[in-house]
Structure formats: C-alpha cells, structure tokens
Amino acid sequence: MSVVLGERLLGLDIYVGSFTRYFSGDWELAAARVARETGATFSVVRQHDPEDAVRDPEQLRPIILQWRTGLAEALSKLVPEPFDWSEEADTPYFTDKPAWDGYQSLLLWAAYEEHPELHRPDHIPEDWTNDAAIQLSMGGKTRYPALLSNVEFWLPVPFSIVFDADSPSGKKITMASSYALAQQLRELNDRTWKVTDSEMDHWTRQNFEYGAPIEEGARFAYALFQRHANLSVMHRLPMLLDY
Predict the structure, then answer these.
(1) pLDDT of residue 206
(2) What pairs with residue 155 in β-bridges?
(3) Which residues of the chain are under the pLDDT cut of 70?
(4) How many structural domains comprise the chain?
(5) What pLDDT score was predicted for residue 33?
C-alpha cells in the first residue's frame, strides 16, 4: 500500500509522542503554543502537503503499526527487545524548539569534546558541516553515535546501533535509540559541564538568540535534548526532529 504523509518545514523542533499523533497533526509546535497564549499570528508552512496526505488517526494507526512491525522484524537479529510503544490517540506529547543554531552548537560542542587537540571556534562557522571536529566525529568513530550520526528518529527501545530505514512516510531516515541518546548526553555533560538537573532546567529558560556563542547555544540545546530524551524513555514514546 502506498501512503502519502504530510511533512513540515518550520525551523527545528523536538517532538516526543506517538507517530500517529505526529503525522495526523494532532500536536502543537512550541512557537504555535506561545503565539496562541500571547494572541500573536502564527502559521505553519508545509514543504510537502499533498491533497491525499493521510491525516485521520484511525487510518494512520494501522499504517504506523504495520511499519513498526516490519522495522522490528528487519532488526530482530540486532534488536531483540520488542517495539511496543503506544500509538493510541490519548498518548501525551512533548515538544520544544532548540532551533538550528542550538542544535548545531550542541553537535559542535560534542565533536570538540571528542577532539580537544583542535581549537573550538567561539561561534558556529559559516560552513559548519566542514568543520574539522565535525568531519572527524560525524565521519568516523564517535562516542556519541546517537547524537553525531545525523539521526532524526529516536525509538524508545534500548539498543546501541544506528541505522537507516524508511520512515512511515517513505522517507529514508537515520534512527537510533532514545535510551542511547539519553545516556550519551549524560556522558557529554559528565565530561564537560557537570551540570545538575536544576541547573539544566534553568538553561531551558535562558534567552538564546541567533548568533550566540557556541557554548551558550550548546547549553540551551543540551538541556532541551536531555529533557526530551528522558521523556521519551520515561513515557516510552518516540522522539524525532521536526523541520
């Protein structure tokens, strides 16, 4: 069966919740929530929004479950744990906006932690993907594979591998475990900031503006990613990047 699901284009957000809820659009972006609460105007721009995109949760759910079953079967020799998170309509969801600057700063921070022999720039390079530390960490062996492997989906199943597979919409996506992401982020914190949970919560409330220094953006994004990875594990729900 060929199914077309809608895709979004609006900055960079983190979403934790069921895939059924995500693809049906039954959730609210962090910026949309702020706009609604303040009475501001806000609109979502979709990169691809075909007329035949499936939005009905009752139609989506069996498609998602079939996709999940196929994925679990394909990975059964590497991931023996069951893929059994909830895809019901009443599952909670959580979302926030690290923005591209924050996300890129976090990746750079992790890459330079792995390569202290290199000099970390104060701000994100214009062509950050060609940064020396990024090239080494994302192009080879890394102690943070769930973060530094272009992952877009984190599944609430404990495993250590990173792999490419079709998403429910048919798009090729790099996937990892949210358990692994949560652990690797804790290790990054232990090796650098050693921030406490209360301090991390404070970081999420700090103003982070475009063009801020790398460490400032990395702290903000780290706090959001760690919080949502923990939520993914706690509620046993997928985590993904929305853009």
Answers:
(1) 83
(2) 177
(3) 1-10, 30-53
(4) 1
(5) 54
Of residues 18, 56, 10, the one with CA closest to residue 35: 10
Q: What is the pLDDT of residue 203?
A: 94
Q: Tell me whether residue 201 is in a domain.
A: yes
By the 10 Å C-beta count (0-12 exposed, 13-18 middle, 19+ buried), 54 is classed as middle
Handedness of CA 79, 140, 225, 116 (dihedral sign): positive
- Give the range of the structural domain holding residue 196, as residue numbers without chain letter: 13-242
Residues in the chain: 243
Quick count: other Cβ atoms within 10 Å of Cβ 169? 18
Classify residue 1: in a domain, yes or no: no
User: Mapped to the 3 state alphabet, what secondary structure does the chain carry?
Assistant: CCCCCCECCCCCEEEECCHHHHHHCCCCCHHHHHHHHHCCCCCCCCCECCCCCCCCHHHHHHHHHHHHHHHHHHCCCCCCCCCCCCCCCCCCCEEECCHHHHHHHHHHHHHHHHCCCCCCCCCCCCCHHHCHHHHHHHHCCCCCCCCCCCCCEEECCCCCCCEEEECCCCCEEEEEEHHHHHHHHHHHHHHCCCCCHHHHHHHHCCCCCCCCCHHHHHHHHHHHHHHHHHHHHHHCCCEEEEC
Within a domain: 108: yes
- pLDDT at position 31 is 52
Residue pointed to by tokens 């994925």: 71
Taking the complete model, does pTM exceed 0.90, yes or no? Answer: no
- 6 domain residue, yes or no: no
Q: β-pairing, 153-155 with 13-16?
A: unpaired
